[in-house]
Design goal:
257 residues, two-stranded antiparallel sheet, Beta-Lactamase, single chain, alpha+beta, Arc Repressor Mutant, subunit A, 43% helix
Amino acid sequence: MSQVPAARRTLAVLRLLASSAGPMPASAIARETAMPRSSAHHLLREMAEDGFVVYLPEERAWGLGVAAFEIGSAYLRQGPLERLARPPLRRLVDRVNEIAQLGVLHGAETLYLLKEQPPRHATLVTDVGVRMPASLTASGRSLLAHLPAAQVRALFPGPLVSRTGQGPSSLRELRRTLAEDARRGWSIEDGLITEGFTSIAACAFDHVGHPTAAVTVTFRRETRPEDAWPALAEAVRATAADLTRRLGGRPGTDPRT
C-alpha cells in the first residue's frame, strides 16, 4: 500500500486526463481512478488551485491545466530521454565498435535524437534531427512492431515510400515484416536506406509497456557476415532493455497476440 495515497491519487488523475481524448466529468474520473466521488471532487478542486486541472462549466467536465502543460514543456526542454539513453549507447559502441543511434516515432517517420560512434567512423545519412520513413528503418519498424494493427494502419493509409527500390510496398507486406520482427524481438534493415549499410534495432518501453524509443546499430554490410547478426542483435536488445529499466518501464508484448 502506498505511504502517500494523496500523491498516488493526484498522479492517477493526471495520467487519466493526459490519456483522455478530452475533458472528463468528475464522476467518470472518480470511477476510472477507483476513488470516492467526494474525494475526487475535493482533489480536483485542490489541483485546480495550483493550475494542474481546470473546470469547464459549459461541459461540466475537467481538463488539464496550464501547470500540467508547463511540466510537459519542461520535460521536452530537459531532454531526459536523450540523457538517459546516452550512457547505454556509449557502452554499446564500446562493445560492438559500430555507430549506435536512438530513434523515436514522429508520425509515420523515424526521428533520430542521439548518435554515438567510434572515432574516425563513416558518417551516416541518418544523423541527429534527420527523419526517415518508419516503414523502412530498423528503428521505426522495431517500434511499429509493438503498436496495435489499427494504429499502424492509420499511420500508413496509402502507398509506402521507397528509397532504394526495396522494402515493403504495401501495408500487407509491412504487417508481415512487423509480425516477424515482433516474434524475433529485433528488426533489421539491409540496404533500404543506404546501399551497403545494414541496421539492427530493438525497442525500449515505458512504464505501461508502450514502445518509446529504438536503439539501433548500423554497420557496413561487407564487414559482418549474416551469421554474426544475431549476436549483434543480442547486444542491441540488451541495451534497449537497459534503457527500459532506466526509464522505469516494463517490457511490452506483441499487440497481435
